[in-house]
Amino acid sequence: MKTYRILVHDRRCAAPIELVAEMARDERAAEFARERWAASAHVTAIEVWSGPRRLCSFADAQRRAA
Fold this sequence. Notes:
Elements: E1 2-10, E2 17-23, H1 26-39, E3 43-50, E4 53-59, H2 60-65
Antiparallel strand pairs: 1-2, 1-3, 3-4
């Protein structure tokens, strides 16, 4: 299992919400983040980090383009 840091930018909060999750693969961490971002209109962006490397991010601009 790998540990991921997930930053959730929610318009209702002044600072990003930091989640720490253990998941088997990078793809699962990205899928989790995408699902969480899509589930709430309040979430403006979400980032997935593995150590110092940002694996992926989702943001409002992508939601409007979809």
